[in-house]
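thought: fold this chain, then report.
action: predict
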Amino acid sequence: MSTFQQPDPKDRPARLTVGVVGAGRVGPALAASLQLAGHRPVAVSGVSDASRRRAAQLLPDVPLLSPEQVMQRADLVLLTVPDDALPGLVEGLAETGAVRPGQLLVHTSGRYGTSVLDPALRAGALPLALHPAMTFTGTPVDVQRLAGCSFGVTAPEELRLAAEALVIEMGGEPEWIAEENRPLYHAALALGANHLVTLVAQAMDLLRAAGVAAPDRMLGPLLGAALDNALRSGDAALTGPVARGDAGTVAAHVAELHRHAPGAVAGYLAMARATADRALAHGLLKPELAEDLLGVLADGATPPGEGSGR
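observation:
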């Protein structure tokens, strides 16, 4: 459980004016959190109706301006655009002279470290990469969820204290990630969080198809326990037919998925193979049972009645 406490106002360093370029789900929440710490949001940019609504909800009375105008007004600018858009945005801001010397430029991309900010660095900006390891909804609940949230932080040595201070002020906990490890770090989070949403949504769809009236209520306790066990025990928490080597059960699963949800077959097989590999490596799946199981998984991509091809 996090022991984070907001710093006493009298102990806080000089407050900064804050701007947001890209009013997606992340930027307004971070700016609102910095506002709670005493900083002052002064401008936000957003194009879509959804982004404008988010900005109005989380940052009321903060004007919506162009990215260049945001840069002019703010000491600290949050660049919270999609990963693929970030390099072009930074280059454009630097080329148009929008970057000011001494300006803190913070991006929230998990994929990139600070090197993506090099064009702005050459213009005198102070580069920070602060990625909150959290899923965002675009609502005020996001600000509350930042309490105790880990941030993947990459910063030049001389800016580490500044990066740490900003994360702590937002209620987060800094985790230092080397520049070269950012893509791997981000892949790990995507595998664990983004793919989890897909798996849960598929599971709910299948339960509805099986006649379950409240799949969310059924899955909630099960998934909560599975997540808790996995975080505590890692591979030792593996259970179910794959870890037990129940090839017949897995074959029945695959056959039903082919009949009722063919789009889920590839994901089921891929995760079952990965689970089997880990269960074997950790001594949970007996080698004598693994051969039949792996045979079922090898045949599983072919719908029943069409021949296995083996």
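thought: worth noting. The chain has a mean pLDDT of 93.
final: tokens above.
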